[in-house]
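Weekly structure sync, notes
Attendees: PL (lead), two postdocs, one rotation student
Agenda item 3: pending single-chain targets
PL asked that the sequence for the first pending target be pasted directly into the notes so everyone works from the same version. It is reproduced below exactly as submitted, 94 residues in total.
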Amino acid sequence: MRLRDYPFVVVRLACNACPRFGRYRLVVLGERFGAEALLTDVVSAISADCRGRREQHPGRRCRAYLPDLVDPRPPDLPAAAVRSLRLIVGGKQG
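Predicted structure, written out during the meeting:
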């Protein structure tokens, strides 16, 4: 997947091995890396200063990922909106 294909305005980065967490605006990452950049390359570049990148032990390696691709709930949706959203069924009758 390329940066241009990322479905949200906010890009969140997290790690399964440490408490590291970050939020980035998609447009800022687009300016920095280019729209054609692979998401794996962007994650690697952002987490390049992680101590786990230098670890040789497989259990201590950096495990940075994009959580919103795992749980596809928009990160820029206000919490209050989640509770107030409802499905309206309708359309042309007849």
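Discussion points:
- The mean pLDDT is 79.
- The two ends are 42 Å apart (CA to CA).
Action: rotation student to compare against the earlier draft before next sync.
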